[in-house]
Write a structure and sequence with these properties.
- It is found in: Cell envelope; Cell outer membrane; Secreted.
- This is Ig-like domain-containing protein.
- By secondary structure, this protein is mostly beta strands.
- Among the domains are: about 380-475, Immunoglobulin-like, CATH 2.60.40.10; about 500-580, Immunoglobulin-like (Sandwich), CATH 2.60.40.1220; about 585-685, Immunoglobulin-like (Sandwich), CATH 2.60.40.1220; about 690-785, Immunoglobulin-like (Sandwich).
- It has 2 helices and 77 strands.
- The strands form 14 sheets. It has a 20-stranded parallel beta sheet that branches. It has a 16-stranded parallel beta sheet that branches.
- It is elongated.
- The protein starts with a strand and ends with a strand.
Length: about 800
Amino acid sequence: MEGFIGQCKFSINDIKNHDNLIVFAVVITLLGIIFALGMGNVSAAPGDTIYVTGNSTLGNDDWNGESATYQSGIIGPKYSIKNATGTVNTNGQIYIAHEQYKGINNTQITIDKNMTINGESQTDTIINGTGTNWIFHINPGIYVTINNLTLTNGTATNGGAIYNSGGVNVNVNNITFTDNTAVNGYGGAIYYDGNILTVTDCTFTSNRAGFGGCIYNRGSMTVDGSTFTDNTAFGVGGAIGNDGGTVTVNNSTFTSNSAIYNGGAISNYGTVTVTDSTFTTNSANSGGGSIFNNGNTSTLTVNNSTFTSNSANSGGGAINNFYGTLNVSFCRIIGNTPYDIYSSGGSCDVDYNWWGTNYVGSNPVTAERVVGTTVSKWLVLTTTSDPNTINTGETSNITADLLHDQDGVYQNPIDRHVPNGIVVNFASDALGTINPLTGTMINGEASTIFTAGLNPGISTTTSTVDTETVNTDVTINENVPPVVTSTSPVNNALNVVVNKVIQITFDRNIQLGTNPWIELKTSSSGTAVPYTTNIVGNVLSITPNSLLAVGTSYSVILHSNSVINLVGIGLAAPYTTRFTTETPPVVTSTSPVNNAFNVALNKVIQITFDKAIQLGTNPWIELKTSNSGTIVPYTTNIIGNVLSITPNSLLNAGTKYTVILHSNSITDMQGNGLNTPYTTIFTTTLPPVVTSTSPMNNEVNVAVNKVIQINFSKAIQLGTNSWIELKNQYGQIKPYTTSINGNTLNITANAAFARGTTYTVILHSNSVTSTGGAGLTTPYTTKFTTTTT
């Protein structure tokens, strides 16, 4: 046999020499038999079931192995696997407990009789060759089943974990093979040259060999439900190397396997059939990133499988056929480089596959996805709606399928179909919704449900698979009248702004009917209000031609058929909604209150309303004396619902003032103004009056440490720049300090008064004021004479 690398040929004998290998295998097998016969502890226990535990305190090779736990005497589990395989009866069962088994008594195990070996679990029952030992050799003519183990770090010239030459039936179930090697030989994990090898639900990771990184096969092999990841061949066949045998692969996954030469996942020199399997990111330095089919006696058949992102330096990134027979159908083949499929001679049929696009106006050969053969039929993405005409609110079944060729011919999935699990993304336009948005193909198709909205039209839905998007239309008819869903303002709303645009929203798009009759009128008198209408989608807007009246109730009536849906079905009965416009702002309080007395001369007048306000256009606000009508200049400020009026100077004491807010001088935020003027009146505070003094005026014999007290008619404060004099009869000023307690002024001399001396106290105008700012209008004088003793 010869393989293809670039533009060169090489002989498979460069990487294998069967005659020498077989001789070597026979020698190794004989040595294993001699070693096994030489073990002093192997007993010929008559048990059909043997138990092994790798715990030295719980197992012993001197025990008979007939119990999973120690009972008495010699009844208890074996300690080593090699002893157990030598002890068990032909066709017997071996049960290996959770443990990691290493060393010479747990590796280099020769199986020379029919048996079944069972691990307690695939993950925790581990036989470890430690990179120095092979694990199992199966002699010719033997039936062996191995279940639920991890076989790791086995190393040999051929078959690092399992070597079989001439076995009748070997079954491997639920086994994990990791880091096993036959670097310069065949089958990093398994070497098989027997009758029937069955591999079921196994995992192969990081195994390495010259030919067949995981498995080298020269017999009849079936692989089912297994995964192959990161395995390597230094020659060909990163996962499986088939050398003249027959291989069937079902429902298995090959990921990131590689070969230095050909066949990153599988190299075939015999017959290989692959079904329902997935090949992703496998690679080869030469041809066949996933599979290399070599020689005119080789046949490769692949159905219902997926090849994505596989690569080779030359030839087919997914499959390379070199003078063999190749049949590939109903597969998903996408994104493999440099080509998806490359064929050099032989027979090649790659019709009825999905290439990720419909190739409208092209084909896989023209697009350089396939080289060396023709493609007359390929699968295309088709999308249908059923039914394709529905009413608003109804549903249609949207189906995307890969069951038609480019000529529209249906391919019955009962016969064959693309792999299950291909993802489909669905979408729709605004006329409806899709649920679910994502589906996976089963038997070549996936479905979703389109639900029509409330508006008629032709809705376009899309289905996308890989790089292809296909549309299908659903016609939506309408057979129900429009229904009002909301109004703005809501029915019976109060305080509606006078410039309100009335909006009525329906459950579907609308239009005005023929000769529409829509009324906007006052509810009490029925006075019609002129308006204009506008419709956007499902919203009717009614705009009065002028501002509405304040504090007025209005009715809107849509008479039958005044509004219709887009196919002409109108309102079945009149629809009425009512609202009342807002009232003008109302004064709720004033500061000072109306008719207040004793108002401070520096008072900021505040008028509070029941809502936020603003100054009207050309506002007329008066602040004046009530008797003479003298205008008082002022400034205004508004915060929220409070109007503040600040006189430019102090008000006059004891004076009545009037504030008038004329009509529309104040409005709410929508422009509704005061209907009538608002007036409030207040009187400012009077100046304080002296009611008594201590000492009294002209009092004699006053103590020299006397605190002078002057009592007023009301609470007082010192005026601005107050001028108070305390002096003797010679006009000499007496220093002092002052304090005020309510309506009492206290004058305290800084030092004792002189004896027998007359003192005068003068409170000049405005030196003392009321708390409202009204000051003494004329000076006030009082005198006293101190004691002589």
